[in-house]
Amino acid sequence: MLAGHLTVCSKAAETGPCPLLPLLLHVWSLHGELLTSPAVPSLQSRLSSATQHGSNLDLHGKPPPILSLTQLEILLLLNSWYYAMYFVIEILLFIYKSLLLPYTSANLALDLVMLFLYLGVEILRIYFGSKGNLSQRKVPLTISLMLLGPSAVMAVYYMLLQTYVLRLEVTINAILLVFYVFELVLCTVGLIRFSSVRLSD
Fold it and tell me: I need a surface site. Which of 2, 21, 88, 108 has the fewest CB within 10 A?
């Protein structure tokens, strides 16, 4: 459209001077058409988009308070490293007991299956605990808190109830139970703190 009007203006320039005021008025009208075109985002849509991106701000334009517990995150990290060491030690102890003790195949298979189930529960528990703590969300932290029960039961089983219990196993499982007690307290504190503010889950 603009090219056509420029052509008209150029033809008019051959016969006489192009009137400046009509040309400016026409350019202004084209500018208004471009602003109202659906291909160009309006200022209102940009403001609404900016509002969506700033939805994490409170009424005063400030970010929400940081309520994540550093102590819980450090404890979960230490727990993950300790459990990795614990798992390796338990596998080596099972090999040792199967070679030196009259371990039946059924009991050995049961203890090994439960150990691998224990590993899966611990991975999920630590993952959801860290995710809920860092994102300040109650749902993942609640899942981690619920998985703390099965983890504690497994630790008690390998400390007292498995087929053959060595003194080393009593020690390493007791350390795990100490981890669980502190994590229970800190997860509960985290849930109370996260409930004090309205955060979307």
Answer: 21
